[in-house]
């Protein structure tokens, strides 16, 4: 898809700048007919050729590589897979073509869907609140009781029967008391609905943070540089000291793991010193449209800085390459958790010093995605669960064990998947374990650099996987949960 988007983008930029194919071809040192084939997606444009075309258009090569547009196209495909949006079995117009020819309209569709999803989540949350909130249930019960009292007393008074002065006063008192109770309950309900307690947290701010991270390729050089200068700071150095293991007794069951406590201490120590840099990155960034989104992005960047302090870029990259990204070795070497080491491995994107390019996904046992970083050609779901064959789900069957496989998408793109279910926090007595599954994915072409690809025969163990069921054309898959949208 990226290549198709590159051709469309070259044509759009050439037209926007008023260049003919002949003129751009001359600047790029190719024939006009070959440029026409590139723009029609019949010939590839990469490497030095893409650089020359970019120079001819007066733009950087990154503006032509199509990755940002590919992510936009994948989002459109995911929107089309939402049953609430489109329940048809027929595939809509090609998302790549829409993005390539009408990028502004594609962005508008995504923004509209985010707004729709935001309102939809709010409605669902309010419905749950109305159906289950104990305050509402008790209030309705009190109102019904008071209404019954008023009605019964009023009927007796209205009947016209002979009532003593004492009985008449008693029934009038019942009506007055029940009416006052009704008024008080009604006022409480009004206050409840007008208070912040009824507000629901929307899903949209996290979408904005995702877009912000995607645009930055999950790498922030300014924070890496800052972290390198903070390690010798007194408060940070003290926070980095290895935490003593918590005693194994009931009194400390609620304490966090030593690695988690150490990470939190470092994050707290560096936050004041990183505040200006983080604010500069978040600022008025176009992807962060609300105050809540900026707050979430700020929190994410402070965690990024803490990780960069605990796992210095060059030292972590060198050790990762030496041990071939063995996350157990890396977590021991840097005194961090498996999850922290895995997330750090997905941030090694420094230009000229890149590590293996990993996608990252974290899910709870219900399938809810709590963190994600897609790869080109491998979108990861936010609005639903991914392919049930992905190890991120299978890892829950054997917590603490790394589950791995090679997978081939219907597009024939191949990836190495590996995941582990880890326990998050300590258990309180009588409560089940809180497990989260952490998965890394890399292109199959880079699997030889990763220890988790060893010992798997790709010729016999290549699983036919998809992304989400409604976007997967494998109709004979025994794990399918929904009919395919793509015919």
- Unreliable residue runs: none
Level-2 CATH architecture of the domain at 356-487: 2-Layer Sandwich
Looking at the structure, the CATH topology of the domain at 356-487 is Beta-Lactamase
By helix and strand content, what is the structural category? Answer: alpha+beta
Number of helices: 18
Principal-axes shape call: globular
| Portion in beta strands | 5-15%
The overall strand count is 8
Name of the CATH class of the domain at 356-487: Alpha Beta
| Major pleated sheet | 6 strands, mixed
Mean pLDDT: 82
Order of secondary-structure elements: HHHHHHHHHHHHHHHHHEEEEHEEEE
Rg, rounded, reads 29 Å
Helix content: 40-55%
Main sheet: strand order: 4-3-7-6-5-8
Distance from N terminus to C terminus (CA atoms, Å) equals 18 Å
Describe the structure.
The protein is of the alpha+beta class and 487 residues long. The protein is 52% helix and 9% strand. The protein contains 18 helices and 8 strands. The strands form 2 sheets. A 6-stranded mixed beta sheet has the order 4-3-7-6-5-8. Strand 3 and strand 4 (369-373) form a beta hairpin.
Key terms:
single chain, alpha+beta, Helix Hairpins, six-stranded mixed beta sheet, two-stranded antiparallel sheet
What does this entry show, briefly?
The chain has 487 residues and is of the alpha+beta class.
Any chance you could write out the topology, listing elements then pairs?
Blueprint: H1 2-16, H2 21-28, H3 32-39, H4 47-57, H5 67-80, H6 95-101, H7 103-132, H8 134-158, H9 165-194, H10 204-215, H11 221-230, H12 234-240, H13 258-282, H14 291-310, H15 313-323, H16 327-334, H17 338-345, E1 349-350, E2 353-354, E3 359-363, E4 369-373, H18 391-394, E5 403-408, E6 414-423, E7 435-443, E8 462-464
Parallel strand pairs: 5-8
Antiparallel strand pairs: 1-2, 3-4, 3-7, 5-6, 6-7
């Amino acid at each position: 898809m990226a290549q198709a988007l590159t051709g469309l983008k070259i044509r759009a930029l050439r037209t926007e700048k008023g260049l003919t194919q002949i003129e751009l071809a001359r600047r790029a040192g190719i024939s006009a007919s070959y440029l026409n084939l590139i723009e029609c997606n019949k010939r590839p444009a990469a490497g030095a050729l893409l650089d020359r075309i970019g120079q001819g258009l007066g733009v950087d090569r990154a503006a032509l590589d199509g990755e940002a547009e590919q992510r936009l196209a994948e989002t459109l495909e995911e929107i089309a897979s939402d049953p609430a949006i489109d329940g048809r079995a027929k595939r809509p117009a090609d998302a790549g073509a829409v993005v390539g020819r009408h990028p502004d309209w594609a962005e508008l569709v995504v923004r509209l869907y985010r707004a729709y999803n935001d309102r939809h989540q709010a409605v669902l949350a309010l419905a749950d609140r109305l159906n289950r909130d104990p305050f509402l249930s008790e209030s309705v019960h009190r109102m019904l009781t008071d209404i019954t009292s008023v009605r019964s007393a009023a009927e007796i008074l209205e009947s016209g029967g002979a009532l003593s002065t004492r009985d008449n006063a008693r029934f009038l008192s019942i009506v007055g008391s029940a009416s006052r109770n009704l008024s008080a309950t009604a006022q409480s309900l009004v206050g409840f609905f007008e208070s912040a307690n009824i507000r629901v947290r929307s899903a949209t701010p996290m979408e904005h943070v995702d877009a912000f991270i995607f645009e930055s390729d999950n790498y922030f050089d300014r924070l890496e540089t800052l972290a390198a200068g903070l390690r010798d700071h007194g408060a940070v150095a003290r926070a980095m000291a290895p935490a003593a293991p918590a005693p194994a007794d009931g009194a400390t069951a609620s304490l966090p793991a030593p690695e988690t406590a150490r990470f939190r201490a470092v994050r707290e120590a560096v936050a004041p010193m990183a505040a200006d840099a983080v604010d500069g990155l978040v600022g008025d960034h176009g992807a962060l449209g609300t105050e809540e989104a900026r707050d979430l992005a700020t929190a994410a960047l402070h965690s990024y800085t803490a990780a960069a302090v605990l796992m210095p870029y060059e030292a972590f990259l060198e050790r990762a390459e030496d041990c071939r990204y063995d996350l157990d070795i890396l977590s021991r070497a840097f005194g961090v958790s498996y999850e922290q080491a895995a997330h750090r491995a997905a941030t090694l994107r420094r230009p000229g010093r890149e590590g293996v390019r990993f996608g990252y996904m974290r899910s709870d046992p219900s399938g809810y995605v709590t963190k994600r970083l897609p790869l080109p050609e491998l979108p990861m779901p936010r609005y639903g669960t991914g392919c049930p064959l992905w190890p991120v789900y299978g890892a829950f069957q054997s917590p603490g064990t790394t589950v791995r496989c090679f997978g081939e998408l219907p597009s024939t793109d191949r990836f190495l998947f590996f995941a582990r279910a880890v326990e998050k926090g300590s258990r309180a007595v009588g409560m089940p374990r809180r497990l989260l599954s952490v998965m890394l994915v890399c292109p199959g072409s880079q699997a030889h650099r990763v220890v988790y690809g060893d010992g798997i025969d790709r010729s016999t163990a290549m699983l036919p996987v998809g992304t989400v069921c409604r976007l997967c054309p494998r109709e004979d898959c025994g794990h399918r949960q929904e009919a395919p949208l793509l015919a």
